[in-house]
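ugh ok fine here u go
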Amino acid sequence: MGQTFRLFNSLTRGVEEFVARDPGRVTFYTCGPTVYDYAHIGNFRSFLVADVARRWLESPLCTIRDEAGKEHEGPRTVAHVMNLTDVGHMTDDEAADGAGEDKMEAAAKRLLEAKKGGKLPPDAPKDFDPSNPHHIARFYEGAFLEDARLLGLKVAGEKDGDARVMPRATEHVREMLAMVRGLLERGCAYVSPDRDAVYFDTQRFPEYGRLSGNTLDKVRAGAGGRVSDANQSGKRHPADFLLWKRDSSHVMKWDPGAPEMLGADAGALAGMVGYPGWHIECSAMAESSLSAMVPGFAHEVDLHSGGEDNIFPHHECEIAQSRCAWGTERFARQWLHVRHLMVEGEKMSKSKGNFYTIRDLLGKGFDPAAIRLELIKTHYRSNANFTSQGLRDSQKMVERWRAFVDRGTEAGGDASLRENVSAEFVRSMSDDLNTAGAIGALNAWIGRVESPSREDAALLRELTGVLLDLGGAQADSGAGDETDALRVARDEARKAKNWAESDRLRDELVAMGYEVKDTAQGTVVTRRARL
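structure:
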């Protein structure tokens, strides 16, 4: 048996052996994007770390334990769900009471102003209505999925075949209402005296605050400024959080008494036309998707991930409402939280000119694999510093890895070196997803191999596959149809030893902003990256 996978658990604040209820089929839930704008590189760092965790769990090299302590080697299936929030996420992320404005409504106002100035997103469809939150959600959802697929997020690649892996909040309101009704019936929630909202009663859950440290006493004292005075009316305790908001004027609203919702079973929710709170969404969607995907799912997720900004209030509230709704001892066995991303040593900000989306970097000619590598190469529990030099270094590293694979055409190689790098890679990844150590082991091995073999190339593909999709140099180059004809023509000129034509075609590609390399497999064209 190999070294068992150990992971830092935010709930217990310690590195623990990863234990799954069913070691052959791990359940995993990731808090996904709110689709009201383009996702930036800080958002994607969290999503990419989750994808690396999934890939490692699926790897044949990953060993985990079951509840009885028995070791189980991979490969295994990971039932991974990432939600798409398209309603109910307030602009005040740190307020448990639902303060602020719905981000979808805020996006509508922003886009309406942009339309007046003729500055709508250039790729928006002709029938795009910036006042329609459903149009906004679908547009930015499509942009997110496009970026996510380019960066190799496996869950995004699976969405077309199984919509359950990326559920939309607006398509699971019935499940949210059913959960709210259940919490009301159990006495764990209450309707405010003015029937303006339904709140979770945190005093019915004494463990509230265990994940974040924001206990009920601290929240009552207004710790960290997390309690909005304007939203305390009708609440029994300052920490109580919104489950359902009555608001018939809201642009996205549902009637609990409608037949397609709870109908006649709406109970205390009858007549409360409105929308769900942010926190209830993930609990309901995790339950709905995973119970449909995994036979015998018992209301408990093996692994739950998100950015560190999700810890409070979002994940704290998820734990409270889920455990009270299902009567379980845990909502998730282990919690994985990713630290913030800095850019050039500073907090990312549009005003500072250091705010990047994935498409910003792709437009500057960077390889998707290089962007991904730059975002995952720092350990997830350290604040990462995204720099232009670091991104260029990551691009060179990816190119080096691909060149190593391309050169591995003959059988043989040093088997002992392959055994050593495999062992070092496993030790690093098993040690709390130490990606920096794993990458270091790969690069040290490559440096010792003068002439890679087919076996060396295959091993590098296998190991890097835990981190990213290495692909082929041309496949991931950022070059597309505009260069294909020229590349093919240049290969034909070289075969015919028509060097003048070969040089002319190379110069034409260079003038278009591409780098041209001659390899044993032919001409490789990559977009020249600039940042």
